[in-house]
Amino acid sequence: MLETPSPLEAATRPPAPPFPDADVLHVVDLLPPEDRRRYHAARDYLQNVIRPASIEYWNNEEFPHEFLPGLADAGLARLQTDGTSALFKGLMYTEVARADVSLSALVGIHNELILGMIASLGSEEQKRRWIGPLESFTALGAFALTEPEHGSDIAGGLATTARHDGGEWVLNGAKRWIGSGTIADFALVWARDVEDHEIKGFIVETERTGFSARKIAHKIGLRLIQNADITLDEVRVPEANRLPGATRFARTNELLRDSRAWVGWQAAGIQLAAFDVARAYALDRLQFGRELASFQLVQQQLSEILGNAQASLSLMLEIARLQQAGRLEMVQAAMAKGTTTRLARASVALGRSLLGGNGISSDFEMAKLFGDAEVLYTYEGSYEINSLIVGRAVTGKSAFV
Fold this sequence. Notes:
Elements: H1 7-12, H2 33-60, H3 68-73, H4 86-99, H5 101-121, H6 124-135, E1 141-144, H7 154-157, E2 161-165, E3 168-178, E4 186-193, E5 199-205, E6 211-215, E7 228-238, H8 249-284, E8 286-287, E9 290-291, H9 296-324, H10 330-354, H11 366-378, H12 383-395
Parallel strand pairs: 1-4, 2-4
Antiparallel strand pairs: 2-3, 3-7, 4-5, 6-7, 8-9
């Protein structure tokens, strides 16, 4: 009969080698062999090439166009259309966020809201024109929904208008916080039809007369992705540019639900990044003649960051199961997004504290993660709004006006 060691004996044994990739729950083992191979190849590229090079771009608020071919070669431009599982897609989002959260925003929005919208709601002509270039990152789109005066209430408050005029549509209005707005080849613009008052979607090439985009500068996070203020002044597009499947906002909202869940994978990734940075720093840094990693409080902080990350991953595994079965609802997506980003905020705060003064310099990465976590907590539905969505579902009472 095996004897169970006492807590004291277990605590005084020599430590096992640290998990090199922090996958203490062996989540990656749930993937089939070919997907595991793809995962590890992409992870190696992201960690060895993208992660170290991203800091300078983050500091300068610049977009690294030269990263796009490598991201495409890793299959990250076509996760939405290549038939992969919800779990594999989610773990890829996690690993991109682990390398750089801004690029994970680009990859996620590209797949969930650009490629996904055209593949699901576009015409055959639109698919032929755009899906190939999108799947190779030789074309970029921007998702133009949020407005200067309407964020959380966008479904009811959307003010951008579309007017049908002689076989064309005339668009007027303004959009704000539009990712890739200054670098995209086209924007998916959501506007209210002045005739039937339904929200419709339009592909608007960014060189069209009356379309202008201005970069939003001085952000504290996601500094690589080029968020923009967009102005639409009598922009004319042909009927062929209207998304035929987006005749009602409810259909679009189904895809927005999936993109809300996607942020949960980002939140897991940023926590794994915080753990990677904090553990490496603790093992390398000497204070009082000892490695930081040998101090009890430091080990407690590392343990809490890792626990938060694994709790987030476990929650997202269940979200992937529901997505794969076609059973994901907005309440589940909202709960996952809210919970994982709350844990991410706590994890990066612990990591920043562990690095002491160096934790406020992006040169040591943790400050970069600290700023990026604030954006995850806020976009795709703020923490508070997602909490109210869950609250409505469990009480039957709406707190929305």
